[in-house]
């Protein structure tokens, strides 16, 4: 799992500030971007649990390093920061499910 976490962290840090702003500015754009990444993970053979753990890494990164750009992201950040590890993991599962729809 550490290998996946490191890969995800590295990929997120490679995203240019302009691209990051474009993705995070609008919540629907963020959902679409995350949905594309979930679909890619599924094509690579990642299961539900692996996808959720990867979503946890992304959510943790965003909560620590990015300011919310809209009310939806603000709510997600507050939920993330108020939860314990188990609750954050459950939220990651819900995020994966949300972007599949």
TrEMBL record:
Basic and acidic residues bias locations: 10-20
One Pfam family in the UniProt entry: DUF3243
InterPro entries referenced in this protein's UniProt entry, alphabetically: DUF3243 (IPR021637), YmfJ/YflH_sf (IPR038292)
Record region (Disordered): 1-20
Annotated protein name in UniProt: DUF3243 domain-containing protein
Organism this protein belongs to: Chryseomicrobium palamuruense
Taxonomic lineage from the root: Bacteria, Bacillati, Bacillota, Bacilli, Bacillales
